[in-house]
């Protein structure tokens, strides 16, 4: 078991190694995309990034269903 100065060196080396691993991974694109998808279709549960796309989706995929109230004032 390492003691004293050797233990300190080992901790520093491990911290540097962990920082390099974290830096090399970069950002997670899946997580960023998931955050951007804020509108969910009430019929099919498909997620969309903005209300205009949501309304276009709703009108093309679910023409017989009533339009949700959050899409009532939006023009496609």
Automatic annotation (TrEMBL):
Molecular function per GO: zinc ion binding
Domain C2H2-type: 39-61
Region annotated Disordered, chain positions: 1-31, 53-76
Alphabetical GO biological process terms: regulation of translation
GO CC, one annotated term: nucleus
Chain ranges of the Small EDRK-rich factor-like N-terminal domain: 1-36
Pfam families: SERF-like_N, zf-met
Record's compositionally biased regions (Basic and acidic residues): 17-31, 53-62
Localization in the cell: Cytoplasm; Nucleus
Keyword Cell inner membrane annotated: no
Keywords: Cytoplasm, Metal-binding, Nucleus, Repressor, Translation regulation, Zinc, Zinc-finger
Name used for this protein in its record: Zinc finger protein 706
